[in-house]
């Protein structure tokens, strides 16, 4: 077995999914390798990833891609939904689909939206503090990391927060369509979740048609009703589904991965507490160090050369953002977590015409959480072993138990009566 094949097998094994970074390093030193799991050539070096993301000759996966991957894809409503999102499917339709929602995601628009969830962050951190008080530890993933993005997406769409929160298992099942292996069981779960989501979304569509508001849901219904060639009925449902999934799962993993990195570096936490202005570079380092979305997809649309290898048109590529971010050719000591780091930006939000639409939203709402945790919880540390999701594409923690020295918190007693020591 060639060394490349052996490395790919290690990458698929449990330990490789828990910590793929040493394997990426060994793979980066070799010529590009074809990975059966992804059914794609892996692109691993920073410069190659930049070119594949935004250079000429590279496009996004289309119907031919999905046909090769899942020959029966038309029989799976969840996969049909995926192919109607802006991320996949009809390449020519991408600017139209993206254009339908982009004005809701500008930095300015998002700044005022995120300001409106600031009080919610306080309340969520209060709950976390109360849980640590009661039990000595609390799970950040269930109490914060998913709840904040789901509340935020609910408000943007104008939907009840508890309804969106209850969709977590369905978002997870749909997000797993991005993982490399898609056994029948996984496809069936995604189909079931999509059917549940579609029923809900159809109710929302009817309600907004009767009582439109200023929210994103009303806007989407209005665009479809005014001109179905701008947004068809299937695209309307897919748009909801992709905003639910992309808006919650990635941000949730970002909060968990970023916090886990911070917890291994008390010096970084102390620096952030002393100088909150470092939050921007600290978050950039969190995104670089452990990218929540490890892989995005491209297909060559012309014959190209990448990293010294000739790739004919139609070659499928798995662009390994998590590997590019650790490439020693551009980052000194790439495995170290250094919040003051300079250097090229991480590629964790992808690039080019497909750059993540929700990047500003994810960063601004996560900044609120990280700032609040650092300032309110001195001695914040792990309270037990974290449990990893072992995802190859969407990488994050299932559980991240933490504790803190609450008695010395700057606003200890804020909720519980001044002077009372929390333990
Ligand atoms: C830290 C959190 C997030 C990360 C790491 C992330 C990462 C990514 C990546 C890697 C891509 C693919 C880009 C490419 O192929 O070049 C992407 C696309 C996308 N993301 Fe995010 N994302 C995050 C949060 C969000 C949020 C909060 C939303 C929406 C509310 C969102 C919506 C989207 C959409 C709609 C696309 C498709 C863009 C297009 O194809 O034009 N993402 N994201």
Automatic annotation (TrEMBL):
Top-level taxon of origin: Bacteria
SUPFAM superfamilies found in the cross-reference section: Cytochrome P450
Gene3D superfamilies linked to this entry: Cytochrome P450
Family designation: Belongs to the cytochrome P450 family.
Record-given protein name: Cytochrome P450
């Amino acid at each position: 077995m060639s060394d490349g094949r052996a490395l790919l097998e290690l990458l698929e094994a449990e330990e490789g999914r828990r910590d793929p970074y040493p394997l990426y390093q060994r793979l980066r030193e070799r010529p590009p390798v074809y990975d059966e799991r992804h059914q794609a050539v892996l692109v691993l070096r920073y410069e190659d990833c930049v070119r594949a993301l935004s250079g000429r000759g590279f496009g996004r996966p289309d119907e031919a891609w999905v046909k090769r991957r899942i020959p029966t894809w038309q029989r799976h409503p969840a996969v049909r939904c995926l192919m109607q999102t802006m991320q996949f499917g009809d390449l020519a339709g991408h600017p139209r689909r993206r254009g339908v929602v982009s004005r809701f995601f500008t930095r300015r628009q998002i700044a005022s939206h995120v300001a409106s969830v600031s009080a919610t962050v306080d309340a969520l951190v209060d709950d976390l503090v109360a849980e640590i008080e009661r039990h000595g530890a609390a799970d950040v993933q269930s109490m914060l990391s998913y709840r904040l993005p789901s509340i935020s997406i609910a408000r943007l769409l104008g939907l009840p927060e508890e309804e969106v929160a209850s969709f977590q298992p369905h978002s997870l099942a749909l997000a797993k369509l991005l993982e490399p292996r898609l056994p029948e069981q996984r496809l069936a779960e995604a189909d079931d979740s999509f059917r549940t989501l579609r029923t809900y979304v159809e109710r929302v569509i009817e309600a907004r048609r009767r009582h439109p508001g200023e929210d994103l849901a009303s806007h989407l219904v209005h665009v479809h009703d005014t001109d179905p060639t701008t947004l068809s009925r299937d695209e309307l449902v897919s748009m909801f589904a992709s905003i639910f999934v992309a808006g919650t799962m990635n941000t949730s993993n970002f909060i968990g991965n970023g916090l886990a990195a911070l917890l291994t570096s008390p010096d970084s936490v102390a620096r952030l507490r002393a100088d909150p202005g470092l939050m921007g570079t600290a978050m950039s380092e969190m995104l670089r160090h452990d990218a929540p979305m490890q892989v995005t997809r491209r297909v060559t649309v012309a014959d190209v050369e990448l990293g010294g290898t000739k790739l004919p048109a139609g070659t499928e590529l798995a662009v390994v953002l998590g590997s590019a971010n650790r490439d020693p050719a551009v980052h000194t000591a790439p495995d170290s977590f250094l919040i003051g780091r300079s250097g090229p930006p991480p590629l964790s939000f992808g690039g080019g015409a497909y750059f993540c639409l929700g990047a500003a939203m994810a960063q601004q709402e996560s900044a609120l959480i990280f700032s609040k945790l650092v300032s309110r919880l001195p001695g914040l540390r792990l309270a037990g072993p974290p449990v990893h999701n072992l995802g190859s594409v969407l990488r994050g923690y299932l559980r991240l138990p933490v504790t803190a020295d609450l008695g010395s918190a700057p606003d200890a007693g804020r909720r519980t009566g001044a002077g009372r020591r929390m333990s």
